[in-house]
Specification:
The chain has 126 residues and is α+β, with helices and mostly antiparallel strands. Helix content is 48%, strand content 21%. It has five helices and five strands; from the N terminus they run H-E-E-H-H-E-E-E-H-H. The chain is elongated.
Length: 126
Amino acid sequence: MTPVEIIEQATVEGVTLTLTPAGTITAIGEQSAVDRWLPFIRDNKPSILCELQRERRRAKVVAILEAAPDTRYAVLVADASTDPVVVAVGIRKIATFELEIPHKYYDSMTLLELIEKHSGENYANN
């Protein structure tokens, strides 16, 4: 099973997987259901963590767009010192996505210029 499938199936069975502030996984639900899912969670912990972190970044980008209705796009850089640099992008009414940019090529201003250039009216209706 993929990390997304594990998270979805666990949710169907009443187990909610979330990230703690410390960046670990918490499984919440009926103890017998949690116990059934613990082996899958342990065996797939790194990939589940990555998926939960990705979803957290996506939720933050969506929240930024919802809080500022006149904003066309939102950009969230997880940590500009990592390699690769992970950037979550939301373009209103078009998409949310992530980029992994090798640190040596990451330039925040160039990234913003590209997003501005390619998220205009010409692209919103295609």
